[in-house]
Amino acid sequence: ILTDPALPCGPILAEHLSVPSVFFLRGIPCGLDFDATQCPNPPSYVPRGFTDLTDRMNFLQRVKNLVFDTPNYFLCDFVLQPYAKLASEFLQRDVTLPDLLRKASIWLMRSDFVLDYPRPLMPNMIFIGGMNCAHKK
Q1: Residue 135 is assigned to a structural domain of this protein
Q2: What's the domain range around 111?
Q3: pLDDT tens across 72-124, in order?
Q4: What pLDDT score was predicted for residue 76?
Q5: Rounded mean pLDDT of the chain?
Q6: Number of structural domains the chain divides into
Q7: Which UniProt keywords are listed (predicted)?
Q8: Of 19, 96, 101, 107, whose CB has the highest number of CB atoms within 10 Å?
Q9: pTM for the full predicted model
Q10: Three-class SS state of 30
Q11: Which pairs from 67-73 meet CB under 8 Å and 24+ separation?
Q12: How confident is the model at residue 128 (pLDDT cuts 50, 70, 90)?
């Protein structure tokens, strides 16, 4: 199943049908893509979205990065809890969203490695470019 895992209905369906899933995404809120692929994501190195920081930060910028990321832990649990409950009821077993996302065959990352920031990748993560521009004649 080719799906965008931002709303986890596709991964739930792929798990139910026992078919491989291919994720096509720009990014998942709350860093679930990092958690699911088990990529390192320390706030002292990886800049968070909307902070305008790079991977070279001084101490105060690292603190800002950590503080900016803190609300995600609480907000994301609240927002994604209904999907975890839906998946557990539908699949008739206890399951978490990272467990569903870990079973992806390939992650097609629709972002540009150079423009975002350098980050570690797992072997099943492929950058396919984030710019959607047409060539002018």
Answers
A1: no
A2: 2-127
A3: 778 888 888 888 999 999 999 999 888 888 888 998 887 766 666 667 778 88
A4: 81
A5: 82
A6: 1
A7: Glycosyltransferase, Membrane, Transferase, Transmembrane, Transmembrane helix
A8: 107
A9: 0.75
A10: helix
A11: 69/31, 69/43, 72/29, 72/30, 72/31
A12: confident
CA 2 to chain centre: 15
Is residue 48 assigned to a domain?
yes
DSSP string, 1-16: -EE-TTSTHHHHHHHH
Within a domain: 70: yes
User: For residue 130, what are its two tokens?
Assistant: 């984030």
3-state DSSP helix/strand/coil % of the chain, to nearest 5: 45, 10, 45
- How much is the pLDDT for 54? 79
Distance (Å, whole) CA 5 – CA 7: 5
* CA gap 133, 18 in Å, rounded: 36
Q: How many whole angstroms separate alpha carbon 66 and alpha carbon 23? A: 28
CA-based radius of gyration for the chain: 16
